[in-house]
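does this look right to u?? (3S)-3-methyl-2-oxopentanoic acid version
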Amino acid sequence: SNVALFGQEQVLGAQIAEAFFNERGGINGRPVKMIFQDTSGDEAGAINAFQNLMNNDKVVGIIGPTLSQQAFAADPIADKAGVPVIAPSNTAKGIPEIGDFISRVSAPVNAVAPNAIKAALAANPNAKRAAVIFAQNDAFSKSETEVFQQTLKDMGLELATVQQHQTTDTDFTTQVTNLLAAKPDIIVISGLAADAGNLIKQLRELGFKGAIVGGNGLNTPNLFPMCKAQCDGVFVAQAYSPEYSSPINDAFRAAYKAKQQKDPPQFSAQAFTAAQVFIEALREVDKKQKLDGMDLAALRKALNTQTLAGQYDTPIGKITFTPTGEINQQMFYTAQIKMDADGNSGRFVFLK
Ligand code: 1QQ
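got this back:
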């Protein structure tokens, strides 16, 4: 499914963290074990996965689910049960506010999305008219488009049209016709990878020559096979840069490269970061009171408290949390997609 394109990257990041921290002693000598559950991308699947993890596997904490759309359905259940959740990729407004046990390492749309508009306008200083399209059946896309629309207005552009689609759409004839009729210099897309890939392709095929900005749902190389050469030039903001040099990111980047022969994408780095936060918090809890002697409910509560209290030096930089569970993150970036001429391979080029 659409969502599997992100999930694969997240599993890799978490697996790399599991091996990395277990090689370095795990939780003060005891290895960490990750259990993976496939949600199949929807709300019911996320709820089912959460219940399995909490009740059958008796996990101490959950990293997930992939989509904000799923998080708004599943997170309240974990919160009520007192199970800490770290969102590795839920960027919609309001995620940490779901409850005391919910935090995120995925910076919210208002912190990330404006960077892509700024980069696109810096590269297209004469742009005056903007058009926006978003997936109206996806909580993240709805949240992100609000930020995009406000940023465009704040930067003095005329918002010529706002179009809607569904994440399951493959034919965008109607929307592309309406978008082109508005004669925009720049088109801004909030959707997920599969829908956005087809949309970009159809926009270019029907003659759009202006700048394209994509949101967080376009932040994966798994987009490239869908729009191929037509992906070229799309601006996408980033909450992670593989080029950020620090001991932990150098190690993560090398471990990822050894497996995948390319630089890690944002979703892998954020999943690694979520795992790191839980592991380092568990080490702290264990130092104060041996984990072996604690009952599960007390351990989950102590893990949540320590998660929010800690400071972490991660691949996405040095981070902390607000008392609500929102991430404090310093560094954001923008990249532009660069496709090879044959359209078969490409990469995100980080802008200076
Ligand atoms: C969200 C997102 C998506 C793009 C994650 C894949 O940011 O659902 O919040």
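The pocket of (3S)-3-methyl-2-oxopentanoic acid is lined by residues 6, 66-68, 89-92, 140, 216-217 (CB under 6 Å). idk if thats expected tbh
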